[in-house]
Amino acid sequence: MIEQLRKKLTIFLASVIALILIVMASLLLRTVIQEYTNSSYASYSKDANLLYSYLEQSNSIDMSILNEYKANNINIDILRSGNAVMSTNSFKDNSSILALETPYNQPRYWDDYYSAINRGNSYRRFYTVSYNHIKYWNSYSVVNIGGTYYTVHTLFNNKIITNYKIKMSILFFVVTLAAILLLAVFSYFFIIKVLAPVKDAYEKQDLFIAVASHELKTPLTIVKSCLSGLSENNQSSEENDYITTATGECGRMTDMINNLLTFADIKKSGKDNFKNSHPEDVLIDCYSRFEAVALQKELNFTVSLPEEPLPLISMDRDRMLQCLSILVDNAISCTSAGQITLSVSLCDTHLCYRVADTGHGISDEDRPHIFETFYHRRNTPATHFGLGLSIAKSIADLHNAELTVADNEPQGSVFTIMFRDGR
């Protein structure tokens, strides 16, 4: 139980930490990329405006000055009458992007052009062009240089921003993954440390149950012997009733002690007694054990085996027989008339044992709790201590098997033990 709790808590804590780290890393990555994008655009806008201001005050075009903008990832084209007079050719795709969306195609270009010629007004327009799934920043301005009007076009190499996004995404992914792995390891050891007192308490509890159960067996045996001796003497009818009641309660106490010892033994032995066994043999032994009991209650007790032999499976044969015996004993107790069926088969690749009865069934209210220790079904007399199905569940868990219950048709219940490890 502690081991299952440790696994669940470790997975839960690691999942929560991973989710928090992923969300935080995603938000931080988005912020970093947005800041870099905004900073690059501000720098590009500033450089473009400085270029236009310089050219408006110049009488000639100095190509060496234009080439200095290459370092800032800006391409500059000087256009006149739709043709490129000169270009810095700062990066590979600049001419393709210019041809895709020239300044002459912009909606306000011709207004800006005639305004510059007729009134001397110079406007600076910024726009974007999509090329190969990347949005490139563009700008233009109609500038009078030495008495000739030129269209100066600038283009920023936005591919560097795309590359920056890719690099930062990879970096954040690696760092986040490393952080998740480190924190998962931390969670593992942290949960072990947190559960250490709980584990110690459970171990002490199991030790107490085992010791107390062993110590109780001796006085109970003495009490039963004394009651047996008294019953052999000539006692009154009322005294015999008292002796019979006391003997029955001693038997119930003995059963409870044996069940508690079984609990402790299951946890202690683990898988030490696992061996390859024939699944059919366990079923046949269980059938032989309860055949006479079922006949005494006049129940139709049948066993169903597959036509082909099933493959060997690793199990604790005695424990699995005990598990099936608990289920069959419950089925016989809950069935006053009708049929009980034992079967074994392969469900896909998983070995499945089934115990089906036609008894009064299990209510929806009881079903979620029937495997809990010391649980009693509602509206039924407390003739048992509520340990049988809990022991069966522990044995199933020991075999990495799932013990479930479902309704039988037309009435009754079907208990299924399905091995998760397949064959």
How would you characterize the overall build of this protein?
The structure is a single chain. This protein is an alpha+beta fold and 423 residues long. 55% of the residues lie in helices and 20% in strands. The chain is built from nine helices and twelve strands. A hairpin with a 5-residue loop joins β11 and β12. The chain is rod-shaped and about 140 Å long. The two termini are 25 Å apart. The mean pLDDT is 86.
List the helices and strands and how they pair.
Blueprint: H1 2-56, H2 63-67, E1 74-80, E2 83-87, H3 94-100, H4 109-119, E3 124-131, E4 134-145, E5 148-156, H5 159-232, H6 237-269, E6 275-277, H7 279-296, E7 300-304, E8 313-315, H8 317-334, E9 339-347, E10 350-357, H9 388-398, E11 401-407, E12 413-419
Parallel strand pairs: 7-9
Antiparallel strand pairs: 1-2, 1-5, 3-4, 4-5, 6-8, 9-10, 10-12, 11-12
Helix pairs in contact: 1-5, 5-6, 6-9, 7-8, 8-9
What labels would you give this structure?
alpha+beta, five-stranded mixed β-sheet, five-stranded antiparallel β-sheet, 423 residues, 12 strands, 9 helices
How confident overall, as mean pLDDT? Answer: 86
Largest sheet: 5 strands, antiparallel
- Which class of secondary structure composition applies to the elements? alpha+beta
Shape: rod-shaped
Number of helices: 9
Distance between the termini: 25 Å
Order of helices and strands: HHEEHHEEEHHEHEEHEEHEE
Q: Give the uncertain stretches in residue-range form.
A: none
Q: Largest sheet, order of strands side by side? A: 2-1-5-4-3
Helix content: 40-55%
What's the count of strands? 12
Give the strand content: 15-25%
Any idea what the radius of gyration is?
Answer: 42 Å
